[in-house]
Amino acid sequence: MSSLSDQIDQLxxxxxxxxxxxxxxxxxxxxxxxxxxxxxxxxxxRLIKKSITLDMxxxxxxxxxxxxxxxxxxxxxxxxxxxxxxxxxxxxDAKRNLAMQKAKELQPYERVKLLIDGQLVNIAQTKAQxxxxxKDAA
Length: 138
Hints:
single chain, mainly alpha
């Protein structure tokens, strides 16, 4: 599992490679080569997206485990002294804080996933354009 910044760097280099498809010669061999490269870039981007999704699942799992025991230590003290309402508030606050931390940690991953989805849409459009050019070149 690579870090998010490494994955972003990979995406940037793949986006640079995608920018080269506007300069493809309209000959059949060049278009076929461009289609192969585009398919390879698409599969690499999908692998990065899959890795990011797994990272997000791991983060959610960690916070789910933490949430199960959130605030249990402090609330036990309140419960002993008969302050059950305070104990419930303590647990609720602890869970709320964990939820905010989780959302904050997941936010960069969500942004990158949206960027990836945008790139995949661009790839689909480029593939359609290459297909049309292939028909014209034939």
